[in-house]
Design goal:
The complex is a heterodimer of chains A (428) and B (262).
Chain A: E1 2-6, E2 16-23, E3 26-34, H1 41-44, H2 50-56, H3 65-80, H4 86-117, H5 126-151, E4 160-161, E5 164-165, H6 171-197, E6 211-214, E7 223-224, E8 226-229, E9 234-236, H7 240-244, E10 247-248, E11 255-256, H8 268-275, H9 281-290, H10 302-326, E12 340-348, E13 351-360, E14 363-370, H11 372-393, H12 398-411, H13 416-419
Antiparallel strand pairs in A: 1-2, 2-3, 4-5, 6-8, 7-12, 8-9, 10-11, 12-13, 13-14
Chain B: E1 7-12, H1 18-24, H2 30-36, E2 38-42, E3 54-60, E4 63-65, H3 66-78, E5 79-85, H4 87-91, H5 104-112, E6 122-126, E7 136-138, H6 145-156, H7 168-174, H8 199-202, H9 219-228, H10 233-261
Parallel strand pairs in B: 1-2, 1-3, 3-5, 5-7
Antiparallel strand pairs in B: 4-6
Classes of the chains: A alpha+beta (428), B alpha/beta (262).
């Protein structure tokens, strides 16, 4: 039995690797190994107040910090009978736009692009693609800035709370965001053009099922009450357990998700497959231009999907800023009950994130958090196995196969800290 | 005179990767940072990593598996200077909040059930100085860009970085914020190390203690201030151990012992 390893998967968030086990010429298994240590966060927040829980759970992941904050707020507000003021709701949408721009620009340009252009890192691309690297840094910095203005700081801001915000930004900082967003649109358009010209390998292709949150008001967006499935079905977010079927696999510590016994995919590609028709502006035009049946089977298209989505987020910032600025600052809404339960579902940049809470007498009794990467793990491995089989059958060298597999894993933009907020996994 | 640029390694263990992300978040300085130092290893940012002798190793995250412990010791052996970055590396972080209280096995079992364990053995997360000598600490959850960059600039120039030795309250006063404690909210500012710029109190919110315990010399009087405000020692501990873990428990115990002597 031969093994082909990528011991330490670079340019992803967290500590992971890939193992391919070969039996002669046959690929026995391909696994995404996760070496990240366990944290047991869901157990640790038991007995905390909802406010204390909100300080801790975003620390599951630095890149999707605001998605965790928002999912937890949505779940806890349902549990405590809180209806957020309109301005708070809009501010939350604004912060999610910022996180989407930050995370998608980081992943597309700085983590994924070097694969396709043949460089070890974005920094190494500076001489040949200096403009694109600088473009990425400008977009990322702006996304971070929007997160800082809305949430209090770039990473792990505490400003969003149950019932509203600690403090609303002043009109001047909002106005600055608006101007900057207009200015950066050409950078985001260039990102779409760049990722549309990439010749994505066909090796990982296979039919896929996609899931994403049905965004509010039948618009494109990152939060809602129900889940869209690409087979045409829709389910209530409260039934998340039936959708994700998290299970412990006997040969590893990983909790995995399947829908109707099959792996599925969440992320920007899932959102665009399910809600692409709801896009507007230049993002809609470019989506129409570049969308094809390949999106339904090739996970590498997620790179292009993220670029298109980043443009949509950027184009929507001025409108969101205007709406936020037009409203007076409301007081923080207080809980109407101290016992209850609720599920918050949001779209983190890398896919659907669920936070479910049961609160009793003002303290957390149970918490259940299902992250996008945990949902994607089965599908990542399925597409990696296909890639390995096809590339080896084509007589590709081990080095080429390794890169092919890394491309697939990276395309999912995995957040390994997220996936292992409670599990550690290694397969042998 | 040209000074050889220092060989740097940036590593992450159990945590949220927020401190490594904050390094990548230095968008305006990133190119210079990669120019002024020779970044030999930074797995989150690049594929061409070389593990050899280092002048400085920046280490994020707590240690929670045998495998991580082995790697940590190996990094220590080849690094002249080890700098713990972020609250997890410095104090263990949220995953170490119950360190020293027991119950880990039970919590672990609740997550994994009876699944058979064939991986590197996991244990309750601990800060890196529980296992190796740490030369410098840059706390924060995540670290502050300015604090990190000023530390790097000093190191590149061959100087020792300066880090704040006072609590968040001092920074809060600089900002002329009204005191959150006086407004009747439980603020961890008095016992928390400065460096964030008192962000939460500046948003009318109590400090959550994410920089970990302060090493201010007047820490006893700051602790007493919280007690005067009516908060019990167990409440204070529960509030700020979310980030300070066992180090906060130890700090509070030391203060209580000192007070008892008086």
């Amino acid at each position: 039995m031969k093994e082909l390893n990528v011991e330490a998967l670079a340019r992803v968030e967290g500590d992971g690797g890939i193992t391919v086990t070969l039996d002669g010429k046959k690929v026995k298994s391909v696994t995404l190994d996760i070496h990240e240590g366990p944290r047991l966060i869901e157990q640790l927040v038991k007995g905390m107040t909802p406010a204390d829980d909100l300080n801790v759970v975003p620390r599951i992941c630095a890149i999707c910090t605001l998605s965790h904050k928002y999912a937890a707020i949505r779940g806890l507000e349902k549990a405590l009978g809180v209806t957020p003021p309109e301005k708070a709701q809009l501010m939350r949408e604004l912060m999610m736009l910022g996180e989407n721009i930050e995370s998608n620009s980081l992943h597309t340009f700085l983590l994924a692009l070097p694969d396709f252009l043949g460089y070890p890192s974005a920094i190494a691309m500076l001489n040949d693609y200096g403009d694109d690297v600088k473009r990425a840094l400008r977009l990322k910095k702006f996304g971070n800035h929007v997160m800082a203005v809305s949430s209090g700081r770039i990473v792990h801001g505490e400003n969003p709370i149950i019932g509203g915000f600690g403090k609303y930004p002043d009109k001047k900082s909002l106005e600055e965001i608006k101007l900057k967003a207009h200015e950066l649109v050409p950078d985001a358009v260039r990102a779409v053009e760049l990722f549309a010209t990439i010749d994505y390998p066909t090796a990982p292709e296979a039919d896929m099922v996609f899931m994403s949150v049905n965004a509010l008001r039948k618009q494109y967006g990152f939060a809602g009450e129900s889940i869209l499935i690409s087979n045409g079905k829709e389910a209530n977010a409260e039934d998340y357990k039936k959708l994700t079927n998290e299970r412990v696999v006997s040969h590893s510590f990983a909790k995995r998700s399947v829908y109707q016994d099959k792996p599925f995919t969440v992320g920007a590609n899932a959102r665009l497959v399910n809600m692409g028709k709801r896009l507007d502006g230049q993002a809609a035009d470019l989506f129409k231009e570049h969308y094809s049946d390949r999106w339904l089977k090739n996970p590498l298209m997620n790179n292009l999907a993220q670029a298109i989505e980043m443009l949509w987020s950027l184009e929507h910032i001025p409108d969101m800023v205007d709406k936020v600025a037009s409203l007076d600052n409301p007081p923080v809404e207080q809980p109407t009950r101290q016992t209850g339960s609720g599920t918050g579902a949001v779209e983190a940049p890398r896919g659907t994130l669920y936070h479910h809470y049961e609160v009793k007498d003002g303290l957390i009794e149970a918490a259940d958090i299902i992250t996008p990467t945990a949902q994607n793990l089965d599908d990542i491995e399925r597409h990696m196995k296909l890639t390995a089989e096809r590339m080896l059958a084509d007589g590709k060298r081990d080095e080429e196969v390794r890169l092919g597999l890394e491309m697939v894993a990276r395309a999912y933009d995995p957040c390994i800290s997220c996936a292992t907020h409670l599990v550690t996994l290694k397969r042998i | 005179v040209t000074r050889q640029s220092p060989k740097v390694g940036i590593y992450g263990f159990t945590g949220c990767a927020g401190d490594q992300l904050m390094i990548l978040n230095c968008e305006d300085q990133l190119v210079d940072l990669f120019g002024a130092t020779e970044i030999r290893s930074f797995l989150m940012a690049k594929s061409d990593n070389h593990e050899g002798e280092l002048d400085v190793a920046f280490i994020e995250g707590s240690i929670s598996t045998e495998e991580q412990l082995k790697r940590l010791k190996e990094i220590r052996e080849r690094a002249k200077v080890v700098i713990a970055i972020g609250t997890c590396a410095c104090h263990g972080g949220p995953q170490a909040m119950k360190l020293g209280e027991g119950g880990y096995e039970e919590r672990y079992k609740k997550v994994y059930g009876n699944a058979k364990i064939t991986v590197s053995k996991a244990f309750e997360a601990q800060p890196i100085d529980a296992f190796v000598k740490v030369d410098m600490y840059i706390p924060g959850c995540p670290i502050d860009k300015t604090e990190f960059l000023s530390a790097v600039s000093k190191l590149v120039a061959g100087r020792h970085p300066y880090l704040y030795k006072f609590p968040v309250c001092t920074e809060c006063k600089w900002k002329e914020n009204p005191c959150i404690l006086y407004a009747g909210k439980f603020c961890a500012g008095p016992l928390t190390k400065a460096g964030c710029g008192a962000i939460c109190p500046s948003h009318n919110l109590p400090c959550v203690g994410c920089w970990g315990p302060t090493d201010d010399l007047n820490v006893s009087s700051e602790y007493n201030l919280l007690k005067e405000k009516g908060y019990r020692p167990d409440e204070i501990l529960r509030k700020i151990r979310k980030f300070g873990g066992a180090n906060v428990a130890k700090l509070l115990k030391d203060i209580e012992a000192k007070e008892a002597k008086k």
